[in-house]
Please model this.
Amino acid sequence: MSPYGQIPDAIRQQVCQRANSLCEYCHASEQWQYVRFTMDHVIPLSRGGSNTFENLALACFHCNRRKSDKITGIDPASGDEVSLFNPRQDIWNEHFIWSMDGLRIIGLTATGRATVATLDLNRVWVMNIRVADQTVGRHPPPNDLIQKMGNAPESDA
Model:
C-alpha cells in the first residue's frame, strides 16, 4: 500500500476519540457536521510523517485543506515564521482562547496567532456555524477557555 493509502478504521476511531470528535484546530464538532472530518498528518507525509496514531489529528475539511503540508506560518504580530499548532505536542488552551462572545478564536502565542492566520480559523463560513451552534448550546466546547473582561487580547489573529 502507498504511504498515502487510507487510514485503518480502528486508528481513525482512536483519533476521533482522543479528539473528543472536535477538529483539533478550530474545535468544530464533527457530530453536527454534514461531512465526515479528515485525518490530518501533523507532520505531513511529504515531510517524512507517517500514518501512525501519533502523527494523526482529527481535522475538519477546511482546516486540513488550509494546513496542507505546512508546519510553519507567519505570526501576524511579529512577522516571524513560527511553528503551527501541533495537536500532538501543544495544548489548545495554552495557544488559543475564544473571544468574549465565544465566536472568534484568538491566538495567545506566536504559534496560536500564526495558526489562526494560516488556517483562517475565523472564516465567515465557520463563524456562521458557531453562531447557530451557540444558539442551541453546542458551542463553544465545554473545556475551552473564553475571554473575560480585562484579559482580552486586541487581535484575533
The chain has one domain: 9-135. The longest helix spans residues 124-135.
